Amino acid sequence: MALSITRPGKIVCVGLNYRDHAEEGGLDLPKAPLLFAKWPNTLIGDGEPIVVPPETTQVDYEAELGVVIGSTARRVSEAAALDHVEGYICLNDVTARDMQFGDGQWTRGKSLDTFCPVGPRLVPREEIEDPQKLAIRCILNGETMQDSSTDQMIFSVAEIIAYVSQIITLEAGDLIATGTPAGVGVFKDPKVLLKDGDEVSIEIEDLGTLTNPVEKER
What we know:
218 residues, alpha+beta, five-stranded mixed sheet, 5 helices, globular, seven-stranded mixed sheet
């Protein structure tokens, strides 16, 4: 399927933004949003394959609420932040864990081609009463891997937009990935990592289900 959003100028991501995810990794809660970037080459739509290249052997899923900016936001307040949102979308922050942990920073491991599926559609802001009260799940080959709620976020959507906009101007079409809850594959025992032939779905309440097959690069 075609992408359900236009190609963003920026993909701004937030790490360690769920209390349950920080706890499963034995990590302290951050005192401010921990920002990193993915690049637009990562974007694919619902139904398109996540392609695993030979350079990585540890590819993980991350169910996330995606936020698409609708109007320029520069130094906006938390109270006004959601006025700059166009809508919300399911997002999978696919990650090459071996690259992420091996590099010591996250850009390369987060930015492989096809590593940011989004979909199935962009839901307008007006249709979502409260983005902090949405059930969020990741389902791998029919088995639930992540099962949480956006009320577990340490920093709300409004707080993230306000924080980012103090130093980075957010523009229409920019995409924010707001973090993932507990249940990622790298912290399971044994680890559960994506492989050729898998099917991974991200379900968010009122936003629908994003489903992508996983394929080894041919």
